[in-house]
Amino acid sequence: MRVMAQVSMVMNLDKCIGCHTCSVTCKQAWTNRAGTEYVWFNNVETRPGLGYPRTYEDQDKWQGGWVRTKSGRLKLKSGGRFKKLLSIFASPVQPGLDDYYEPWTYDYENLIQSPLTDDFPVARPKSLITGENMAIKASANWDDALGGIHETIHQDPVIAKLRKESNDKIMAEYEKTFMFFVPRICEHCLNPSCMAACPSGAIYKREEDGIVLIDQDRCRGWRQCVTGCPYKKVYFNHRTGKAEKCHFCYPRIEVGLPTVCSETCVGRLRYIGIVFYDADRVTEAAAVEDPKDLYEAQLDIMLDPRDPEVIAAARANGIADDWIEAAQKSPIYALCKYFKVALPLHPEYRTMPMVWYIPPLSPVVDLLQEQGHDAEAAGNLFGAIDALRIPVEYLAELFTAGDSAVVTGVLQKLAAMRAYMRDITLGRPGDEEIAEAVGMTGGAMEQMYRLLAIAKYNERYVIPKAHVEQAHNLEEMGCSVNFDGDPAFDEPYGGSSGKPVPVTIQSFNAMKAHRDDESMT
Amino acid sequence: MTFFIWGVLPYVVLLILISGLTWRYKYDQFGWTTRSSQLYESRILKIASPIFHFALLAVFIGHLVGLLVPKAFTDWAGLSQEMYHLGAFYGGGLAGLALAVALGMLIWRRRRTGRVFKATTANDKFMYLVLAIVIILGLLATFTGETHLNGEHHNYRETVSVWFRSMVIFQPDVAPMAASTWQFKAHVFFGLFLFAITPFTRLVHAFTAPLHYLFRPYIVYRSRDTSKARQVSAGGRGWDPVGTSDRDKGRR
């Protein structure tokens, strides 16, 4: 057992109102640079809908993620190592700018500079790529809140799959009955296919917190990661020629702050915490035969941070005590493995994603309310979950590789919590039968309610600080005494400390970075 | 003068190439990329770019064989000059033509696709010009370089190749090179120029061909601490400042 820590996220979709605040603040913080105008590390999709880039879930087309070979091994869907190298001269399946959208601005100047005329001056859209006038045809959320859905719904890969399975029956009524939003960031997978596809080996997973990053100095712009990622969450910066992706706001996480998207979330629907997992069993878990078993397999490699054996193994692997404590308090572990209400997004890609979702009960509740039923009563809700086959199957395609029993189970738990807590709120004793019906206790119901509905800041975000002290100390020691194997001497010129070095550009920069880095003082 | 061009200049170019690449590798890791334009345009690229690169590999191997294998060796192996010439003429010519056609397609695409053209720097244009000259001269040398202007027969394996091998072993012998046809001279001269500018263009991507991909593990773990100690790119290179327009010709 090799215990590793993974910073991960859970989003409670019932609370998402699709306001895009997370997307906007993320963009302001990270992708407001030239070459990344079309890039959204965080985007919010309306489901049913096409997603961004459009139809990215259609892996027959985009070739993302892994497939299991007949011999039970994992292979990149886009091909093995030789095939990838042979096709490196032009990436065979890379989404083009038009599959995302052509970014634009408006000619605001014309509004101010226009001379007095009979007509109102207008601000025409100008392409940010070519500078020419352009007709806006798409954006990152062009089908927001089901806009134009009657034309595009057939292109939604999930719908297409459902239709194939249920022979076209499902169309007409339900576009009126359900809709929900899915905010998406990089999944920081345990078994990332972007990393496996990178010819340069520039993408890496941090040992300490599992965040997946791209080394901008080692990336050579081969673009295979864009194809490799089934979530299409690695983007090509067309100006620098390098790939960029969501980095889980690691500068914030390192000092114990939640990500920008979480911090600014109006609905407070995001949870951040760490999870211990067994790194030795990741590949094995990702290669289970039936895609429907992937969810359980991934739960299985998440380790119980209270188990003394796990704690001992964690210590042996150099995980500090405050991290172990944080893992024990982790809301992620609670929601994924203890309450089992959070589910991974598209586990069938076999990447072991680590941003999980609590599926929305609201479509069911809304429908009951519209029809005049009591949407808080357990019986009504349970019945409706069973009867509303289509939303459940749709959710199952998103979160459990099509296993609707799991989704039904989660929705029933959420419904039971609703019904149970109504009694408490009205001053009546909690009905243990409701809790038992979904395999929980009244106490657990109240705990889950506290975590999901009260959702205190310090319970939503349990983020241990990174341990920079040690590395820092090592570096400082190098100033007075030289040690063999001192990391400061890995560089030919000794970096910022050690022997007297000529004032090269490099050591000047190192000194400057050292001076400007506040964490070093 | 002859000695300078064929006896000194190649070494100077070699020095520029090696020191330029070393310098750039050390101080401009961030700029070390092809700056792919596939995001803008994919249809023509998917055809032209693989043709170009595979033809280039073929041409490269052809050059190696032609320059490094002595005529005495093929004679000894029983390969007649006529046979050899046919192979080189048709094989090399075909690869060269494919190279030229694909480069033509790529340049046409670069000029005619607005998005791609807007992302083309002056450096790129200059590089394409030199590259095109070298390739065209190479084709000329292949197809017309076997006779001198006065009609005398010329075999590059007795001139250019001999000179090249003398350069490789650091015993410069410029007389054979001086005796070759103008096509070969021009091709070699501009070839040297292309090598000299290579470290300063996007062509550097060829020197980081990711062959190690075949051997590395799929999943890469790296510690935060070691990654922090790395400082590779020199100051000034990096992401454009916030507010830079895409179409700014600033730094690339």
Biggest interface between protein chains, with counts per chain? A-B, 71 and 64 residues
Overall mean confidence score, pLDDT of chain B: 91
N-to-C span of chain A: 37 Å
CATH topology name of the domain at 267-460 in chain A: Alpha-Beta Plaits
Order of helix and strand elements from N to C terminus of chain B: HHHHHHHHHEH
* Model regions low in confidence, pLDDT < 50 over at least 5 residues of chain B: none
* Tally of helical segments of chain B: 10
Q: In percent, how much strand structure appears in the residues of chain B?
A: under 5%
**Given the structure, what is the number of helices of chain A?**
26
Q: What would you call the shape of chain A?
A: globular
Major sheet summary line of chain B: none
The third-level CATH topology of chain B is Fumarate Reductase Cytochrome B subunit
Q: Tell me about the largest β-sheet of chain A.
A: 5 strands, mixed
**Structure classification of chain B:** mainly alpha
Give the helix level of chain A as a range of percent: 25-40%
Distance between the amino and carboxyl termini of chain B? 38 Å
Gyration radius over CA of chain B: 21 Å
Cofactor (chain B): heme b; Mo-bis(molybdopterin guanine dinucleotide)
Protein name (chain B): Nitrate reductase-like protein NarX
InterPro entries (chain B): Heme-iron_electron_transfer, NarG-like_domain, NarG-like_sf, Nitrate_red_gam
Keywords (chain B): Cell membrane, Electron transport, Heme, Iron, Membrane, Metal-binding, Nitrate assimilation, Oxidoreductase, Transmembrane, Transmembrane helix, Transport
Ordered list of secondary-structure elements with their pairings:
The complex is a heterodimer of chains A (about 525) and B (about 250).
Chain A: E1 3-12, H1 21-30, E2 43-47, H2 59-62, E3 66-68, E4 74-76, H3 81-86, H4 97-100, E5 104-106, H5 109-113, E6 125-127, H6 149-152, H7 157-166, H8 171-177, E7 180-184, H9 193-197, E8 203-206, E9 212-214, H10 224-228, E10 234-237, E11 242-245, H11 250-253, H12 260-263, E12 270-278, H13 282-286, H14 294-301, E13 302-303, H15 308-316, H16 321-328, H17 331-338, E14 343-344, E15 355-358, H18 362-370, H19 378-387, H20 389-399, H21 404-425, H22 432-437, H23 442-454, H24 457-460, H25 469-480, H26 505-516
Parallel strand pairs in A: 1-15
Antiparallel strand pairs in A: 1-12, 2-7, 3-4, 5-6, 8-9, 10-11, 12-13, 14-15
Helix pairs in contact in A: 7-20, 19-21, 20-21, 21-23
Chain B: H1 2-27, H2 43-68, H3 71-76, H4 81-112, H5 114-118, H6 122-144, H7 160-168, H8 175-178, H9 182-197, E1 221-222, H10 224-229
Helix pairs in contact in B: 1-9, 2-4, 4-6, 6-9
